[in-house]
Amino acid sequence: MRDVLWANLSVQYFSPYSLGNSFLKNSLSGKNAALKLRFWCKTHLVQSYVNVDEQHYSLKKGFHFMVKIVGISGSLRPGSHSYKALKSAIERVAALGAEVELLDLRTMNLPFCNGGDDYADYPDVARLQEAVKSADGLILATPEYHGSVSGVLKNALDLMGFEELSGKVTGLISVLGGQSNSNALNDLRIIMRWVHAWVIPEQISIGQAWNAFGEDDKLLDEKLAKRFDAFAQSLVENTQQLQQK
Ligand SMILES: Cc1cc2nc3c(=O)[nH]c(=O)nc-3n(C[C@H](O)[C@H](O)[C@H](O)COP(=O)(O)O)c2cc1C
Known about the structure:
Radius of gyration: 20 Å
CATH architecture of the largest domain: 3-Layer(aba) Sandwich
Largest sheet: 5 strands, mixed
Strand content: 25-35%
Bound molecules: flavin mononucleotide
Helix content: 25-40%
C-alpha cells in the first residue's frame, strides 16, 4: 500500500535534483510512498511527482506548472447526466494534480445575456466571470438539444467575453438521449474558437446517457471510462504546456 503525501515548500531558487535528493534522503528514504511536491520557483507555482520505494528514490516525472481547471455544465435538470459527466472528468483532472472548481449553473441565478455589460442585479454573473477568468483551462459539458449546444451553456458563455475566455485550454463533452454524435461538440468547438480558446482534440460524446451511469454516478462502460482518463490527461498536459509563462 502506497501513501500519498503532499508537501508545500517555499523555495525561491532551486535545483530539482538537489532539492529532491536532500528532501528525500532526510525524510522519505525507506518509506513506500508517492510524494507530490508543490513549491514556488521564482514567480511560478510548480508541482512535481516523486515516487519513492523501499530501496531507493527517484524523480520519475519532470516539474510541471500547477493549473486551475473550471468545469461548467449546460443542463439545469435535476439528476443531469451532463453534470455527472462533468464531475467524472473534473475528478480525474483533480487526481492529476490540477486545482479544480465546478460551477453548477442550477445553483446560480443568471439572466439572459442582454448584449450589455451591466448585470449589477445578478451577482452570479460576476462570480461566473471571475471563476472563468482565474482558470487556465475549462471543461464544458453540454446536453445535445435539437442537434446542438444547450441554450443554458450558450447563454453562460455569452455572459462572458475575450477577457474571460480567450486563451483558455478547453475540453468538450456532450451528452445525448439518442446515439452519440459530434453535432453539439462541433458547434461548441466553433464557439470556443471564436473567443480564441484552445480546444483540445480529445472530446467525449455520451449517447443514450440514461444508460451510462450507475447509481453512484460512476461510468458503467470501461471503454468510456478510459476515454475520460485520456481526455483528462490531455487537458492537464496541454494546459500546462500552453499556459507556461
Ligand atoms: C429540448 C431538448 C432537445 C433535445 N434534443 C436532443 C437531440 O437533438 N439529440 C439527442 O440525442 N437528444 C436530445 N435530447 C435529449 C437530451 O440530450 C438528453 O435527455 C440528455 O440526457 C439531457 O442532458 P441532461 O441529462 O444533462 O439534462 C433533447 C432534450 C431536450 C430537453
